[in-house]
Amino acid sequence: MITGSLVALVTPMTENGDLDWKRLHDLVEFHIKEGTDGIVAVGTTGESATLTVPEHCEVVKRIVSQVDGRIPVIAGTGGNSTQEAILLTAEAKSLGADACLLVTPYYNKPTQEGLYRHFKAIADAVDIPQILYNVPGRTAVDMLPETVARLAGHRNIAGIKEATGLVERGRQIRDLCGESFAIYSGDDATGMELMLQGANGVISVTNNVAPRQMSELCAAAIAGDRETATAINESLDALHHKLFVESNPIPVKWVLKEMGLIQEGIRLPLTPLSQSFHAELRAALKQATEQVEPA
User: Is 133 known to be catalytic?
Assistant: First the structure.
């Protein structure tokens, strides 16, 4: 089971929107050095919605090759077309990904039965560990715990990224699916509490800019050390919230640019962070980094 702090990695781009392979390479090494436990490639934060299929597959290919088994790589392969999701998942397997992350179908708003059949079809078709991804705030569909439980017994469905921000939802899924089914928080602000109550990690946006702190936070929370986890989480709390002042990944890409780790590249229809939010993002970053300076 993959556990800990898993970064929902941004996809670096140049100012004209081309993929920035050099910065992608550097980001991967940065995360390995700073203790990130796993990389999620081309998820929502990686702008999967605006990458072409060849670009999508090339990003996964390069990350898997570079990581070379040092930490797990989870490929985002979801879609609102079941057949497209199967094709992307099969390609990720052929490229050597350790697992796949599959978002609930967006825009077409399937029923709970449709969600069950969608994910079962992908799991039947491709023999690779698959993590369900429930994020109703972006997809307009909420996969209920009872539907997750129907899927949890499939040999290829390993867990869920639960991004409702509802801690009670995580407890419901754990009760229905058992301890062998992995639960990852998809909400940084409530991730600590979910892990203290038995979740296996966080697929994190905050990890992009504070990987060492997030790794230490997850390790403490999974171990049940509330005092240590709370102290770290308090220093990150402003980042957890301010990284969503505009649609993800707008704020996190701006912060990474401020840190000198990427260029200011993002693809339409997303646009660079509004000037009015610059000061509060800088303050949140300062709060997080000041907490980890040597004594």
Answer: yes
Task: Report domain extents, the chain.
Answer: 4-290
45 is in an annotated binding site: yes
How many angstroms separate the Cα of 57 from the Cα of each of 6, 17, 89, 268? 20, 17, 10, 20
pLDDT for 293? 45
Ligand-binding annotation for 250, yes or no, is: no
Could you tell me the pTM of the whole model? 0.95
Catalytic residue, chosen from 93, 133, 242, 257, is: 133
- How many angstroms separate the CA atoms of 103 and 79, rounded? 7
The answer to whether the beta carbons of residues 161 and 186 sit under 8 Å apart is yes
Three-class SS of residue 283? helix
Cβ neighbours of residue 275 closer than 8 Å, sequence gap 6 or more: none
Eight-state DSSP code of residue 273: P
Q: Exposed, middle or buried, 282 (CB in 10 Å: 0-12/13-18/19+)?
A: middle
- pLDDT tens for residues 240-258? 999 999 999 999 999 999 9
For tokens 């605006």, the residue is 50
CB neighbours of 65 closer than 8 A, spacing ≥ 6? 96
Summarised one tens digit per residue, pLDDT across range 42-71 is: 999 999 999 999 999 999 999 999 999 999
Three-state DSSP class for residue 35:
coil
- Catalytic residue chosen out of the listed positions 161, 242, 253, 257: 161
Q: Which CATH class is domain 4-290?
A: alpha beta
